[in-house]
Amino acid sequence: DQQVKQNSPSLSVQEGRISILNCDYTNSMFDYFLWYKKYPAEGPTFLISISSIKDKNEDGRFTVFLNKSAKHLSLHIVPSQPGDSAVYFCAASGDSGGSNYKLTFGKGTLLTVNP
Amino acid sequence: GAGVSQSPSNKVTEKGKDVELRCDPISGHTALYWYRQSLGQGLEFLIYFQGNSAPDKSGLPSDRFSAERTGGSVSTLTIQRTQQEDSAVYLCASSPALASSYNEQFFGPGTRLTVL
Fold it and tell me: Fewer CB under 10 Å: which end of chain B, C or N?
């Protein structure tokens, strides 16, 4: 069973507009969430994270929102730029009896930002 | 370079052969992780090393998989008697000492393994 779900395999937006990437999780023990960005032939790079005690975290053009009651988080990128085109992975940790090192990843969403 | 490095970048092998994948973590990082990403899937946790503690091997899919970390730095993931379902990108990550509950992991570029 997939504990972290990214139901949209792909998303296409125009440059300058907002990109919204969604992620749902099923395990209520998760207490820390991360977004990673991956370009082809490269490893994922950390983008932004949020603790379950918060509902929003902002870093420049990137904002992550967490809705614990809905077990849903989203990544907003505004304004979107062509260089943002990549696969975005949602990840969660905190479900392993206090061992927070294991990250459980979604399958990723391919974002394409068109000039 | 200052990042996590992995070798080889690509490996093609025949079913039944053994393979070794290498990971050099970021200098000073005490935690090291292996993941794999099969086609169309997310990253799947395999194994975790932290300092001199016993590794967490709970993610290894079978006893054909093993990993070691020598001298608290370089790690090798070994797959014996490879099967076609082992074909995936194997990713290594490292992070600083787990001083807090949360950590961001720094990933290498991965090794793409193809088992024919």
Answer: N
